[in-house]
Amino acid sequence: MDDLSFEAPTGEITVLVGPSGCGKTTSLRMINRMIDASEGRILLDGVPVQGIDPPTLRRGIGYVIQQAGLFPHRKIVDNVATVPYLLGWDRKKARTRAMELLERVGLDPALAGRYPFQLSGGQQQRVGVARALAADPPVLLMDEPFSAVDPIVRTSLQDELLRLQSELNKTIVFVTHDIDEAIKLGDRVAVLRVGGRLAQLAEPKTLLAEPADDFVREFLGHDRGIRRLQFVSTAGLRLRTDLTAPEGFSGDSPEPWLLVVDGEGRPVGWRSAARPGELEPYGTFVPGRDSMRAALDAALLSPSGCSVAVDEQGRVVGVATRNALDLALAEAADG
Amino acid sequence: MGDGPPSLWEWFGRNWDTGRADSIRNLLTDHITMSVVPIVLALVVALPLGLACARWRWLYQPTSGLMNVVYALPSLPVFMLMISVTGLSQTTVIVPLAFYGAAVLIPAVVDGLDAVPDHVRQSAVAMGFTPLRRLLAVELPLAAPVVLAGLRVVAVSSISLVSVGALIGQGGLGGLFTRAYQNPFMPPVIVGIALIIALALIADALLVLAQRLLTPWVRARKGTS
Amino acid sequence: MSWVEAFLNWLVQFFGDPANWTGPDGIPTRLLEHLQFSALALVLAALVAVPLGLAIGHTGRGEVLVVVTANLARALPTLGLLVMFVLLLGASSIWPVIIPLVLLAIPPILVNTYEGIRGVDPDLRDAAYGMGLRGGQVLGRVLVPVALPLILLGCRLSAIQVVATTTVAAYTGLGGLGRYVIDGFATQDYASVVGGSVLIVLFALFVQFGFALAQRVTVSPGVSRRLKVR
Question: Membrane-spanning regions, if any (chain C) (predicted)?
Fold first, then answer.
């Protein structure tokens, strides 16, 4: 570890990311004194952690690790209530709190009486998160919590974490080796290089747009430009509303492509002027909610080159043509 | 006889080869026979039984239950009960020791075969090994380290257990202990314990050597990591 | 099968003799003695070996001691050790015999306790410290419950050893069921030898069964995985 200095702002997710051997886990473990820093200081709310008795310090900081680390000899509910028990809460209150948290992390309360080995990896990891939140600590440390589960479960755990964070606003320090996970979860991302030096600390979109050096650029990998688009809003995208036609329409149009819409306003397919008898596939996005990346992806899915803007109920609100997308992309490229 | 009790070395030298059946040399030979035979028997019994248990899983539960019971039987009463079948012979000690050995080795064989990675087994199948070839050329060699570890335990404990046989007059070097107790005299005890420990160490060293020769890849892997 | 007949005759003779059921040489007395000596040796051994194994496993200091005792203990001839202690200390009390019993009972408990603690998943240890458990709490609330199956296995192996060695110790004058076997053999009273042997075997199996029961009662179902997965 060499001259690493960063700040994890209150209520935000700060992600430490880097190749193995970059000291990201070590840095994380210095915060709750699982490892003591030989030099330098770590401040928690302005108080140096080196001055706090480690167990006391750790009871006030949630800690989630890769394999969940659940106690195999205790039922799920008692696993979640571990820190409340340590803090001397009465049993009933601790268990009530544990049940509340199980629900909060999306677990069936019926699992409370099971033992860890009876749960799937993804469920165990949710219990791990619930356990870390049990005593309502303001700070959470998460050490590669989702890297041992399969990609589908991982995605759902990530979404769950973002949803939880929007409710709880914890100060989270999250360690991962997966740059995509870092970009998805982080309010700010710290890229570390081997030896524990900070290569760049920035918001994800800044990271993608302006990597500080070759190391960061390489670490970010392929498709940096495309991935950046996920931080560009589609709210300002110019939509045309004159390119739709009702089902059964058989007239002529000056436009080469028309979007056929059913009676409830939902898209059916693209009708080409060249072959009016067949309907071609279409792609949709929700303006304002989905990113420019989704809008562009929707356009690429259709031979028309246009993407269909729909509302949350799936009704067509307009069409983003290639021109409109071009314009938006040009703006995005300018920063 | 000199003045006072003889020293350890003196006593050893005088009793090493008296020509009688209870000379240290003869006791040592008996001891080696009575411990090596059960070790070999245990292996001969445990290999096929272990293979069968690994092949037909339903066999394992009852077999290991039975072996647990066998292992828990105290040696002296078992020797005594054997007398009514085999008389006061070396067999009376050898047969129970072989059973104790098998009780340790059968689980070792099963564990060893379980430790063969499934991808290795699968690729052997895919390359067209017949079941027997696969067993001999792939599975047994890979199971060997675990089996040999079990064999080391069996060898050392058999060597020390033989001495209990002295209480029925068939204990190899254990005879030195009963002799020492009958006419209270320390040197035979010391010599007996020392020789038994030495035998155990030699047997263990030989098995470690066998392990290195039979499974060279185990050491090579350790060297690189 | 003549030996089966002879065997059964001896059993009937031994268990049918009312004199064998009373007095200082009666079966109840000898059984109780065997239980007392075995239990005493086992408890003393556990009092030494469990804390030592926990300490070495938890701190990682003194591992050499475990390896050496584990290897040496198996090679030590029990009869030799018993005779040596009796010759050294005389046979005035039971202690010259109990001491080697304890010494022989220590290694299995020590080794298995140590292995049990060492074998606990490092992630579990990490999680326990990370949540703010203190060293003693990590040991008592997490490591011991998780390592309990191995600790009990060690105790069970020691109990097997102690019951067997208590029998052998009858040779050096200790009471217990071994008396029937040793004295019967010396006087060619085979009814006594066979009856005593059967009693000892039953006793050993009973002890084995007792430990299996203790394991079921004390080990968390989450550790033994006795329940269905889902």
Answer: 37-57, 94-117, 138-171, 191-214
pLDDT at A335: 58
Q: Which residue of A has its CA nearest to C221?
A: A73
CA distances, C8 to each of A95, A117, B79, B88, B92 (Å): 62, 51, 17, 20, 19
Comparing CB atoms, the residue among C71, C181, C190 nearest residue B77 is C181
Rounded Cα gap, residues B11 and C66, in angstroms: 35
| Nearest CA among A56, A3, A63, A55 for reference residue A29 | A63
Which CATH number fits the domain that encloses residue B125? 1.10.3720.10
Give, as one character, the DSSP assignment of residue A240: B
Handedness of CA C78, C80, C82, C85 (dihedral sign): negative
Which of A28, A71, A87, A143 would you mutate first to test chain C, the one with the most C CBs within 10 A?
A71
Q: Record the pTM.
A: 0.83
Regarding chains C and B, contact by 3 or more CB pairs under 8 A is answered as yes
Residue that is written with structure tokens 């475990």 in the block: C66
The domain spans of chain C are 28-220
Best of C120, C124, C126, C131 to substitute, by most chain A Cβ atoms within 10 angstroms, is C131
CATH value at residue A161: 3.40.50.300
Residues of B in contact with C167 (CB under 8 A): 74, 76-77
pLDDT at B224: 42
Q: Are C123 and A118 a contacting pair at CB < 8 A? A: no
Determine the pLDDT at residue A193: 87
Do residues A191 and A199 touch, judged by C-beta distance below 8 A?
yes
| Within a domain: A1 | no
Give chain B's residues under pLDDT 70.
Answer: 1-5, 219-225
| pLDDT recorded at residue B1 | 44
**Per-10-residue mean pLDDT for chain C, 230 residues long?**
82 90 91 95 96 93 87 89 93 88 94 94 92 93 94 94 94 92 92 94 94 92 75
Number of domains present in the structure of chain A: 2
